[in-house]
Amino acid sequence: DPSRANVLYGRLPSGGVVAVMSLAAVMGQHPPVTQCLAVASALLTLGCALDLLAPSTLLLSWQLVIYEMQLWRLVTCFLFFGPLGLPFVWNLCVLVHYCSSLEGISFQRKTADFLWMLLCGAGMLLLLTSFFNMYFVSSSLIDLMTYVWGRKNSSARMQVFFFTVRAPYLAWVIAGMSVLMGGGVQDHLLGIVVGHVYYFFEDIYPLLPTSKGFRLFRTPQLLKWACNQAD
């Protein structure tokens, strides 16, 4: 996790270019938002591996964002998963799997709603970084999507190593595994909390009689028009 480890970058390993090209070919099979996220993440990692970019230019620093107008940091902190290696491949695979499943199935023909969910979730995570020492929130974004996916596919069962996990608890299991492997739990918990806030106010609260149909995360019409999404 780039927010908890110091990483040293070398040149792109042998076969790395081929791997990235293969990834680009595979991406054509996934929905558009998933493609954009995965390709952007791969390009940032490739840029760092080739010493074209420095990780320090990608991390979130509110001081640099506010006083130096380095606004790109508000985006790159969600897309960088660390150096080119096994952890990066694992995170990218998890991102593509659950992001693609959400966009292509749970949000089928609702690209604007899916994009709005990501934007709202990212906004809440950025707000939380004001209270926690976080420089990259890419893992939190994955946990957000994993949690929402689990809730929207509550009957699904996932095989995690040697045991079966019900989908609603998958994000918690991943967080627990991270702790057992020596990682931190803060990023995972924040992603789960934000995912629950979105799920509750989008899928649970509007169904309550007291809500009168109110939806806190209603997708703006302008975004629906831009994504060519029908009401």
What does this structure look like?
There is one protein chain. This protein is mainly α and 231 residues long. Helices cover 57% and strands 3% of the residues. The protein has 10 helices and 2 strands; from the N terminus they run αααααααββααα. It has a two-stranded antiparallel sheet with strand order 1-2. Strand 1 (157-160) and strand 2 form a beta hairpin. Helix 2 runs antiparallel to helix 5, helix 5 (86-106) packs parallel to helix 7 (138-152) and helix 6 packs across helix 9 (186-204). The N and C termini lie far apart (39 Å). The model is unreliable at 1-18 (pLDDT under 50).
Summarize the structure.
The protein is mainly α. The chain is built from ten helices and two strands.
Tally the helices.
Answer: 10
N- and C-termini, Cα separation: 39 Å
**Overall number of strands:** 2
Shape: globular
Q: Average pLDDT across residues? A: 84
Trace the largest sheet across and list its strands: 1-2
Radius of gyration: 18 Å
Portion of residues in beta strands equals under 5%
**Uncertain stretches:** 1-18
Query: What about the largest sheet?
Result: 2 strands, antiparallel
SSE ordering: HHHHHHHEEHHH
Query: What share of the residues lie within helices?
Result: 55-70%
Structure classification: mainly alpha
